[in-house]
Amino acid sequence: MFAFIARQPILDGEKEVYAYELLFRDGVANCYPDHADDDKAERMARETLKLGLDDISCQKTAFINFQRDTLLKGLPATLDPQTVVVEIEEPGTTNHGLLEACKQIKNMGFQLAIDDPMLEQDAHGLLPLVDIVKVDVGQHKHQHIAQKIPGLLNANVKLVAEEVETQQQFLTYKNLGFDYFQGYFFSKPESLAGGQLPTSKLALVQLISEASSRSFNIDSINEIIERDVGLSYMLLRFINNPLINKRYKITSLRHALTYMGEVEIKKFIALLALANLTDDKPMELIHMSLVRARFCDSLAKEKAFGDNPPTGFMVGLFSLLDALLDQPMKELVEKMPIVDEVKFALCGGQNDFALFLLLARAFESATWLKVKRVSDALQLDQKRVHGLFNEAVLWGNSVRQTISPHFPKPHVQ
């Protein structure tokens, strides 16, 4: 179990999550931590919610980096070869001990991945054992990568393009033969065409308006939701999620209001609207929005901000709206009936809500120094902040599983 951990998604050619790379704050260079002789990390983590590997990877494959010394000593017995890919960071020259350790790892049933930053292919002697090669496409010119790829394809390995930050890069390296893509290209607008929201989405905008209002008109919300059987069904699935509601079966919006209260219902109405605003985007975009929403909501509570309307939740939930709708954020927030403080933060303004988003992004990129710096600026304890983010990950995983059966697969060019 781990208290200080982050993850980065690895998507396939259809922009579905294939795996997450796990990044450990306690480990050297974000590698799997070796705490055999170190009680300090355990003392730090004792009061922080810990996550298992399945929790952080949301039941997907987990790529985990290991230092040479850890590999030579042997992998932890708790790791499952069915769900973990063992990654060797920049192997360089390979001695006999490392080669034998990698053979043992393969015999245990693990897949083996290597970072090949210099595209030296088999200069380290590991390629016959390797299942996956990761290439940092930001470090090399396209022409150089294109020249080296045939040799890797002939070696019958899967290829992961790292540091993919634009849609054009995704398409370029997909066409070049890469299988998987790591980077936040999917969280940016593919184009910025502008324009009006489709008429079919206006009811969702009405829901956002109701969720963002200080007042609560249940009759108006009922009327909107009852027009769409799909919305009604999904709202009840959200509210009856075991992580949120373990005791009562909720059968209507009015019943939910009685049991959960106005503020919590507003959050789920906003979430429901966001999940249905777009039809052809990666599910990971919604998932990131969920985690950010819960995290920013928790930070707002820590800072004792008012929660009606739930502005912390809203700023996290709508922080990727430009990528979801391929429209400039400044234009979108003018069309969306959300409070001014949220609009200001979403458009790059500097306030506490903007710091919440900065902190969420620091966790997503495992920029631990920035996590510390922003936590200090907010006058929040780092251990507490880590615990809040871990809680947000668990909550986001649970809600994602509720949404997934009803969320269409993205259209990929």
UniProtKB/TrEMBL annotation:
Domain HDOD, first and last residues per copy: 197-384
PROSITE patterns: EAL, HDOD
Protein name: EAL domain-containing protein
Domain of life: Bacteria
Species the sequence originates in: Fluctibacter halophilus
Segments crossing the lipid bilayer: none
Domain EAL: 1-203
